[in-house]
Fold these 4 entries.
Entry 1:
Amino acid sequence: MHRATRWPSGHFFWAYSGRPEFEGRAASFLAEGQVRGERQIVITDDPRRSLWPRDLLLSGDLLVLSTVEAYGPTRIVDPATLSAAFEAQLADALHLGYTGLRVAGDNTSLAEGPDRLAAWLDWEARADLLMQARPITGLCAFDLSRIGRHALRALLGSHSVAIRSR
């Protein structure tokens, strides 16, 4: 895992180029969670668990989930169901002694196509309120090679902070 780089808390939008860029930035983002005592979660379409520190996986400090595991096979999310799922993850984390949740998600496939995008934007509005009220920090990442300009603008507008690629 990369060294922490003083990430703030909040709900972040980030458009990236290529899987290596996502994995590097996600590792930095999650490392900050380790420093803060947060349970870390990374969600991608193809979660390569072998990329992440084995000790964090074995201890449960880091959960690596596929998009299907986290959001279901259709990838059309229901905001109320998803909110309840994140509240349950947070309750579990707090019960285990973590200070909160830190989630890095490659959400590209969740915003592909008009139906998925509309559902995802509804979730983003709810997620933003959830992260303001609860100890959850989220990095919502979208691959520039797979998301159109219209979708990117809509997604950017649904986050309180945008992160620039380096």
Note: The chain has a mean pLDDT of 89.
Entry 2:
Amino acid sequence: MTTPDTGPTIGLDAAMASRFARITLAHIGLQYPYKLDLVLTGPQDAVPPATLHPIFHGSFDWHSCVHGWWQLLTLRRLFPDLPEAAAIVERADAMLTPALVAGELAYLDRPMSGGFERPYGWAWLLALHAEAERHDAPWAAALAPLAAAFAARFSAYLPKLTYPIRVGTHFNTAFALVLARDWATGRDAHLAALIDARARDWFGDDRGCQAWEPSGDDFLSPALTEALLMSRVLPPAEFAAWFAAFLPDLASGQPKTLFRPAHVSDRTDGKIAHLDGLNLSRAWCWRAIADAHSGTVPLEAVANDHLQTSLPHLDEDYMGAHWLPTFALLALIR
């Protein structure tokens, strides 16, 4: 295969972290435009987003606001002297409170809310709670009831999900389980074991992945998110055997679609702008898989190629700016 000429490995530094924080602080509380995930049960439900979601009413939609907070808290932990750190703490102190969490919990009790943000937003809320626990602050305690509610939803949902959802968008099962498993490990033994069992059931026998991707609005790689999940679930030797069978032609750069960054034709179109996220999330997957894979294929170089394609465009338009820095951060800290 031809190795991408990508230069030195791209890493997260303070300047880049500050850039990410500035982008996200500008929209984390921006109420409009906003895309609701809401089933109206009557005219009384037609209220402003901030009434329905007292915390997560910014960043265009609920899940982007949730992972925007994950991103900000992660940056504050990694770079405590960041110029934006004080603003992050001030806003987190004001927003991540028990009273406002109670408002978010109330939304889950609404009629017909069982599918709200399933499973993408559920997983990101668990990731946010896990990150909040790493700070000497009251944020994790405030978020704990919301995390418990979504963990319970996962525990009820996974046994009845007969087939995994393999699309490259928010409904992807493997991506959600990567984040949910990270949270469940050490916190919820039942959920962690359930995730591992279901992952083996759904993906354990997968062989010869064709990787017919991307689709036109993918921001996740169905192939690579599955591989990343299995790298977490399986012991190293078992994963090596599984991965060799899953992508048997990896050494020759096949399937080509996984090695070639996606082209983004219009970053003002929210769905087409998803493809920048695909490049960033693939970089995350390739880097994380490289950590678990002892082969000779230069996966880090492939990841760099994807990163370099989309990192310059994070805030080119609001349709990307409201969420892309999160996926850039994932890739850079894997």
Note: The chain has 16 helices and no strands.
Entry 3:
Amino acid sequence: METLISFVIPCYRSENTINKVVVEIINTVSAREGYDYEIIAVNDCSPDHVGSVLRKLAEENSRIKVINFAKNMGKHAAVLAGYAVAKGEYIVDLDDDCQSPVYELWKLLDPVANDECDYATAEYSKKKESAFKSFGSNVNLWMSRILLEKPKGLRFENFSVMKKFVCEEAVNYKNPFPYIEGLVLRITKNVITVPMEQRERGDDNTSGFTFKKSMKLLVNGLTAFSVKPLRFASVFGLIFAMIGFIWGAYTVIHKLVNPETLLGYSSLLAVLLLTSGMIMMMLGMIGEYIGRIYICINDSPQYVIKDTINL
């Protein structure tokens, strides 16, 4: 009996590359006996003609399954939608821009199949991305190490393989703010990286990783799976309260010892602005948590499926 591999591909603006990705998947899996495939392409309300391209591919090949969203819900929601229908023993994540070296699939799948790990992700020696996107990725990497306790040196990339149970457990997360990296680390710590080379994009489109999306991902990571930001706020509040007490005591004592000393308006204004800024930042952080709780209570969906093909 052949082992089924599910390929989950969130699709955006790469109608010129999705055909190449599909062909490479089929050729790679066909080259090794004992394996079969299904391709789950999630059209995250792409602004171009990706939907029609996927429909044509699905009509020609029943192993290609398509999910069309009613509106853009983000990459992480699209990936979870693919997980929800994946039937394979192993699930592969990859993007639709040809940057993922599909021909290296077995380097990722073999350690998972041999029970050396539960999740394997690519480790690119050199990232083929803009300086802005690289900066955003590094900020999220730093954040996840602190808040999610991610092991040093571990970096989740756009090409990975996982066991079925990891996928099934991730799908149980129903809140409207999914964060795949946090979900995986919550499920298992048995994660490895496999060195390989990332390719250039297969078209002339930009990545679509805007500043807004970068900030949204950062906030998701900060608030979705950790209360450490609130604890940091508490610690900062205590530190500044102590500083304020010490400063106040120093000012009173200094005035008693030297009655002619004039109180410094500039220094007081600087302290006031600093502490007020910290208070507003902490209130904003608390407000973000409360807002997300409110949205979750109102059962806001992770994604809305408009229609499907071959499902």
Note: Residues 121 and 193 are 5 Å apart (CA to CA).
Entry 4:
Amino acid sequence: MEIRLVQYRQEESLSAEQDNENNQYWSGRRSGTRSWALPGTRDGRAYVHSRPETRAGYQPQYGAEAFAWRGDVCLEILVTDTQPVPKATIMRLAERQLERL
């Protein structure tokens, strides 16, 4: 699991918002991906990838991600496991982290 809080210096544009949109675009394009809105955010979303990433010699890796932003801080949560990641896991992690922003 990896949690990133990235703070931007937003002088001329909303960089945190743009980074959030870019992350969501790429996460949503993977096949076998379902997504849900994150409560308490304007456009935050959580993604669960039901198809694992596979590489020769490695166990399959399932993933889930969550992206949101508030002000100049962008939240990124990345979870990987050898078993499918439940929706409840990524939603709970995102909600707990958003409470701290």
Note: The beta strands are 2-7, 33-37, 45-53, 61-70, 73-81.
